[in-house]
Design goal:
Elements: H1 3-15, E1 20-25, E2 28-34, E3 40-45, E4 65-68, E5 73-76, E6 92-93, E7 98-104, E8 107-112, E9 117-122, E10 129-130, E11 135-139
Antiparallel strand pairs: 1-2, 2-3, 4-11, 5-7, 5-10, 6-9, 7-8, 9-11
């Protein structure tokens, strides 16, 4: 399944009355869910090469847990342009805390902390396009 087919699947899911959809085939696993406010959460995992959105020289990675983008989209540090960033370098976070937003096809996907710790580095800028499996944040 290629990226265009995944986009079409997401669009069709948004228009449907379904609230949850899970598919798994040929090593590809797709989970879609939405609540009554029509917010759609998308998780796509595929063991193949990722789409690279924007090439930038990468810094030497700090030691710690690396949070990578689960999808292709646009990275946002805050829920809206008028709000403060969800996290800052040096901030302590708890597992499950929202750490950023990835917008994909006009759907805002909230990314949560997979573990507790301290934010040691944010590797992308607000509004930057990110690719699947691209390093976003390092948690020490």
């Amino acid at each position: 399944m290629d990226f265009v087919q995944i986009q079409k699947l997401i669009k069709d899911f948004e228009k449907s009355n379904l609230t949850k959809l899970e598919l798994e085939f040929d090593g590809v696993k797709i989970k879609l869910s939405k609540n009554s406010d029509q917010l759609v959460e998308t998780v796509v995992s595929q063991p193949q090469k990722h789409v690279e959105a924007e090439k930038e020289p990468q810094k030497v990675e700090a030691i710690g847990f690396q949070v990578k983008s689960p999808l292709v989209g646009t990275f946002y540090a805050a829920r809206s342009p008028k709000e403060q960033p969800l996290i800052k370098v040096g901030q302590s976070i708890t597992k499950g805390d929202p750490i950023c937003i990835i917008e994909a096809m006009k759907i805002m996907n909230e990314i949560t902390a997979p573990m507790s710790g301290t934010v040691s580095d944010i590797h992308v800028k607000n509004g930057q396009a990110v690719g699947f499996d691209q390093l976003l944040i390092t948690i020490a």
